[in-house]
Design brief:
The structure is a single chain. This protein is of the alpha/beta class and 325 residues long. It has twelve helices and 14 strands. The strands form four sheets. Strands 9-8-10-6-11 form a five-stranded mixed sheet. A hairpin with a 4-residue loop joins strand 12 and strand 13. Involved in the system for phosphate transport across the cytoplasmic membrane. Part of the ABC transporter complex PstSACB involved in phosphate import. This is Phosphate-binding protein. Belongs to the PstS family.
Length: 325
């Protein structure tokens, strides 16, 4: 038995020396390549388990996208926490430019005055487009008289200074019932976009209207009022189609209903819009932030449709990824 064990030790040592020679020379001794696994990575390139917290806040419209990305990222890096808030686009930029969060969700581009505050605070950032959205005008399922609305009629309903109070004031033949309005709050990028695209920046009226930064609150209010009307991102309409009716909008070329196709090709005008995330360049120096943002951009296209948004063309995602380099 001892003789056999000694023989085995000699054999094992010989194999170990031969393996070491092949590893160090990169070949099998006669100049041909060894059969090392193709997936083997140098130590510095090996996947690392990361940890930490990445704070995100801002647009309630972009929230479903970022939440989806955070959930998928958790499967890859379970020790990285990504809490996502919904204080509205404006509220998100306030925190972002104060250095309180790493990423701001935004349903509109950053304003000049917001960018100036970031600059004053020494916060450089990168703007990344993540998907398209179609801001959707909705009414209750009980509403049986609205078939479409023009941009002019939306102005009669929502614009500050308007004297229109009843549906019969909007279009002849409609009921003489009070219009009950619902709108995202002034900190919302959706509010800003609607004000700019529909109301020529003149502002939304304050009488007989309910404001909320929470789109789910708006859903409850609109669906519960036969004569109510409001607007928010397409994802919230799609999620609540059983309670709400979407209103086709005539921007001058006929009434168009928001769908994946009309949002993507721009025919749902003027309410198709791009969505963004803004990332602090300093925060990107943290490996967990860099990893998450790259994951977001490289994967959000496949997630967008699942949460009610329209993915950008592949070449646009490639352009966003190039910004991160």
């Amino acid at each position: 038995m001892m003789t056999a064990m000694a023989a085995m030790l000699v054999f094992t040592a010989a194999c170990g020396n031969n393996g070491g020679n092949e590893a160090s020379t990169g070949n099998n001794g006669n100049g041909s390549a060894t059969n090392a696994p193709a997936t083997e990575k140098p130590a510095e390139q090996a996947d690392k388990k990361l940890s930490g917290e990445i704070k995100v806040d801002g647009s309630s419209t972009v929230f479903p996208l970022t939440e989806a990305a955070a959930e998928e990222f958790r499967a890859v890096q379970p020790d990285v926490r990504v809490p996502v808030g919904v204080s509205g686009t404006g509220g998100g930029f306030k925190q972002f430019c104060a250095g309180e969060i790493a990423i701001a969700d935004a349903s509109r581009p950053i304003k000049d005055e917001e960018a100036a505050k970031c600059k004053e605070a020494g916060i450089a950032f990168t703007e990344l487009s993540v998907a398209f959205d179609g801001l959707s005008v909705v009414v209750s399922k009980e509403n049986d008289f609205i078939d479409h609305l023009t941009v002019e009629e939306l102005n009669k309903i929502f614009k500050t200074g308007s004297t229109v109070t009843k549906w019969s004031d909007v279009r002849e033949g409609w009921p003489a019932e009070d219009i009950v309005m619902f709108s995202p709050g002034a900190d919302s990028g959706t509010y800003d976009y609607f004000n700019e695209a529909i109301l020529d920046k003149e502002g939304i009226r304050n009488e007989n209207i309910s404001f909320s930064e929470d789109d789910n609150t708006l859903v409850v209010g609109i669906s519960g009022s036969k004569y109510g009307i409001g607007y928010f991102g397409y994802a919230y309409y799609e999620e609540n189609q059983d309670k709400l009716k979407v209103v086709p909008i005539d921007g001058g070329n006929g009434a168009v209903e928001p769908t994946y196709e009309t949002i993507k090709d721009g025919s749902y005008a003027p309410l198709s819009r791009p969505l963004f995330i803004y990332v602090s360049n300093k925060e990107m120096e943290r490996p967990e932030v860099s990893e998450f943002v790259n994951f977001y951009i490289n994967n959000i296209g496949s997630m967008a449709g699942e949460v009610g948004y329209v993915a950008l063309p592949d070449e646009q995602y490639a352009e966003q990824a190039a910004k991160l380099k």
